[in-house]
Amino acid sequence: MANLILILGDQLSHTLSALEDAAPGKDLVVMAEVHDEASYTNHHKKKLVLIFSAMRHFARELEDRGFQVHYHQYDPASQCQSLAQVVQEVAGQLNPEKVVTTECGEYRLDAQIRQWHKQMGVPVEIRPDTRFLASKDEFARWAEGRRQLRMEFFYREMRRKTGLLMTPEGDPEGGHWNYDGDNRRKWTGKPPAPAPFRVEPDQLTRDVIDLVETHFSSHFGTTEDFHFAVTADDARAALDHFIDFALPCFGDYQDAMSDDEDWLFHSILSPYLNCGLLEPMEVCEAAARAWYTGQAPINAVEGFVRQILGWREFVRGIYWLRMPDYARENRLGNQRPLPWLYWSGDTHMRCMQRAIDSTRRNGYAHHIQRLMVTGNFALLAGVRPEDICDWYLAVYVDAYDWVELPNTLGMVMHADGGYLGSKPYAASGKYINRMSDHCSQCAYNVNRTTEDDACPFNALYWHFMDRHRKDFDNNPRMRMMYRNWQRQDEDRRKATLERGDWLLAHLETL
Ligand code: FAD
Ligand code: SF4
């Protein structure tokens, strides 16, 4: 035989660089469901079902294309509990010329694979992941010499590079680079949000659901109502569904939250993009087509493309530029353990309860819930970054270290000192009330700050601002809030801080 080609669970793309010159009938593809990868965190049950089932379907497709596939099914009694053990065993039996793989998305595993040639005595060729639009080197070149990195400037480079939403003259379509200012509407039930795209589980997926229920019963979440796509064809159908039914309103309601709608106008494509069933460029091109054909307005299409071409590529660039030190950053010195309510959802705070409940049922919450509800609360409460990062990595079906870590540690917790975002996304209950209908259903009063029934976000917000004055005093984007704080009379400020102290001491009971 010639090469042993290793394909990981988030590399389920037929265009994968490791498969580029692969010879069906000659090379052997290895795929493995192993205990070490499935259990290093408390992965949501739906995430395990999605990845294992998508892997099994992908292996079948490779076999249909003539490849010989060595597929290691999950077996807790197996001698091989890590990827290295599986590869070593197969390599020992077949003596390949080399192991070929595509660079993996997680620093921890990447560091291990880079040592395999020494441990296994077989050459290991690691190819770049060409599914991303900016390579690691390209991002590093862009970042070089910049004191602070700003997504907006990187995004414009990417627009120019890809030509997406650009006129032939080289200007942004519609005349502006960014339509974020138009994308802040509250949703009041109209137009109705589309039903999410659903795929009924086939036999392969049902087998995986049984496996997860048997071996991962203590993991977070539920397998009930599993309806994610597990093949590229179905993921493309999910993309079409989004373009037809949700994209036209995506921009308007991008920041909205609803007490009884889990998905609103979001695409729910991250689970597929991140495991390789969809590629970023095909998704952006489909959205751009909707603008050119008049199917969706520019604020929706540009807003959507920016998330993928801008944010997704940007956070990946930062991850690889700053790891491994990035994971240990804690510039605000937060040490509070993660409150148990993140796992139980047992809280009177309606916004938190709804976000955690959706997370538990679906393995999904949309961006504003992650950023401005569960994330905001962790920031205001001073949760240890490591704890909250572990939570986000575990609970979402789209969670992989390269994308979860910068979003949580950088964007939410500001633990990187502002490298990713120029100011923390801290907000009081007022913001949540403006963007949702949660507060009208809540046990707390969003208009109060110091009383026993006052919204916890309010006093915690000012407590956060006050205790981090030294960290943010010089930040021009925070000056107005500090002036507002200073303008309140002293007794009021004292009562707010006392209420904040009390809340911090009683987080589990809120
Ligand atoms: P849409 O709202 O429809 O957006 C379209 C696409 O844009 C997404 O599918 C996603 O690929 C991309 N995107 C949007 N925002 C971001 C972003 N900030 N970073 C990277 N890509 C983005 N996204 C993940 O894919 N995996 C994660 O583990 C993850 N963890 C997060 C943790 C926190 C604390 C926060 C605040 C955000 C996190 N995000 C993560 C980003 C974002 O919340 C999700 O990508 C988005 O909610 C996925 O749902 P969607 O596909 O419906 O997105
Ligand atoms: Fe959340 Fe406060 Fe509104 Fe309750 S009142 S839903 S805790 S923001």
What features would you describe in this structure?
The protein is mostly helical. It contains 22 helices and 5 strands. The protein has helices at 35-39, 45-64, 83-94, 107-113, 116-120, 136-143, 151-162, 203-215, 232-250, 270-275, 280-292, 298-322, 341-344, 350-362, 367-381, 385-395, 401-412, 429-435, 456-467, 469-472, 479-487, 490-505, and strands spanning 3-6, 28-32, 68-72, 98-102, 124-127. It has a 5-stranded parallel beta sheet with strand order 3-2-1-4-5, sandwiched between helices. The model has no long low-confidence stretch (mean pLDDT 95). The site of flavin-adenine dinucleotide has 28 residues, from helix 10, helix 12, helix 15 and helix 17. It comes from Marinobacter lacisalsi. InterPro entries: Crypto/Photolyase_FAD-like_sf, PhrB-like, Rossmann-like_a/b/a_fold, UV-DNA_repair_photolyase. This is Cryptochrome/photolyase family protein. Pfam families: DPRP.
For this entry, give a set of tags.
DNA Cyclobutane Dipyrimidine Photolyase, subunit A, domain 3, globular, Rossmann fold, 3 domains, 49% helix, Serine Threonine Protein Phosphatase 5, Tetratricopeptide repeat, binds flavin-adenine dinucleotide, binds iron/sulfur cluster, 510 residues, 22 helices, mainly alpha, 5% strand, 5-stranded parallel sheet
